[in-house]
Amino acid sequence: MHQNSVLVTGIGIHSAIAPHRESTWEALLQGKSGIVFDQDLRMPIARSMAICENALVNQKPLTRSQLMLEQVVLEAIADAGLETPLRGCGLAIGSSRGNQRELELLLDHLKSPNSNLQANSWRNLELWQQLQPSSLSAHIAQLLQTQAPVFAPMAACATANWAITQAAMLIASGQCSMAIATAVDAAITPLAIAGFAKLGVLAKSAVHPFSQERDGFALGEGAAALVLESSASAQSRHSQVYGRVLGWGMTNDAYHETSPNPNNHLAAIALKQCLERAAIAPQSRGYINLHGTATPLNDAREMALVQAYLPDFLPNLDLSATKGATGHTLGATGMMEAAFCLLSLRDRLVPPTVGMLTPDFAMPLVKNTQRSPDLQYALNFSFGFGGQNAIVAFGQPQ
Question: Least buried of 148, 187, 309, 331, by fewest C-beta within 10 Å?
């Protein structure tokens, strides 16, 4: 890590359990879930509380993803005591699906006999341009009026940890004194459902991470944002500090389009890189927010990874997974879970594994919220299609 320490000074969250940071955190600690069984879709889902139905068909200005993204970024900068414009603020804005929801709505509308849009009209071309993936980063860049570097990573369900790493590198390298990492997804759409259903990874009735009863995840919607600053910037502003970005590890299996390599070799390298960069010792008290999708394959793979490569750490580790509360928000899920790691460090509380029934593994999984007065660090695990392995470590502020 470069000598410029990277601190987190602001957090914004919009989830299926609550629309803001503190309300989401409180609901999570209480073990609440935003996952409900949708009778029409015949499956559990976790919709966010954003209201933006048929946005572009009705010619409203923002897509659902843009609305959630704007909300969490504004909440995070207000939490950090900042105001726009932020001309020197770097950005790393991630999404797995971008504006896919509105693209599908637009295609359905074009097929409708009552459509007032023509396939080759200039108005239609305008809509297509507005729905490009770049519109998310462009919207926030314009909102902040930033002239600093803007990244837009897309790494499946590891997207958020990539965004955090890219934002942290801008600060650690000295390019920026401040950067915002944020991610969003609103992917409860016919195409997304069809694809995941074909893979057999969607839950049939409920989500049960690391349980004998687990059979898949529930698609969710949401967004989160972190304000990152150099220590000099935070000190000059007398900022509150949630924690430090200690380090990260990133690898790729190069094995299969959707399945992780069963040998866990590259995931273990990412974990080792992260621990070494963060200088975390086995005797330190820690927490891991697991990827925990509640699929038979992913949960077993994660438990094998922890058991095989962290045996010396386990006596001082607590583990939990939070997708049983928020649903699986794809590219945004890791950003919410990073926020949960930082709030855990602030309050010295480990959130529960919401939805866990009969544990399937002899591991220190937290079933109910647990106090951890000596908590020193938290790891955020994210694994995505294409073999993406991304782990970020956070530590207490010094």
Answer: 309
